[in-house]
Design goal:
single chain; alpha+beta; Alpha-Beta Plaits; 2 domains; two-stranded antiparallel sheet; 3 helices
Length: 131
């Protein structure tokens, strides 16, 4: 009877150890995923220039690449593609405000400002157009 109990205990231990390791790995991976999604990105955001026929969607520039110039005359947001995250409004309230679930342009003056360039580069949906 003692040998049976000992074998039973050994079998339980042999089965439990891998299960505990798998559960711990699962908990750690979930925790890392939550940290990655909640932590702000340390990579610089990018901004796209007005698209031309030869430009691909992957071609993007940083805010520093946009040279301040007064040649820009129009600022628009594609409301059908806007996610409504509000980043542009938080960065540049001079030019943007929220209207329902989407951002909208409220000013087309001072289109060469650094805050506008930063707001364009922060847009995750890439829907802000400066031309």
């Amino acid at each position: 009877m003692k040998k049976t109990n000992q074998k039973l205990k050994q079998a339980i231990i042999i089965l439990l150890i891998p299960s505990v390791v798998i559960i711990m790995f699962f908990i750690i991976s979930i925790s890392n995923t939550k940290q990655e999604t909640s932590a702000p990105s340390s990579t610089p955001a990018t901004v796209t220039q007005p698209k031309t026929e030869t430009q691909t969607p992957e071609t993007q520039t940083t805010p520093e690449d946009i040279q301040p110039t007064s040649s820009y005359t129009s600022l628009t947001i594609d409301p059908d593609r806007c996610r409504g995250c509000g980043r542009c409004v938080a960065i540049d309230p001079e030019h943007f405000e929220m209207s329902g679930n989407v951002a909208q342009v409220i000013s087309e003056t001072n289109l060469d400002s650094q805050s506008l360039s930063s707001a364009i580069s922060a847009c995750p949906a890439d829907v802000i157009n400066l031309s």
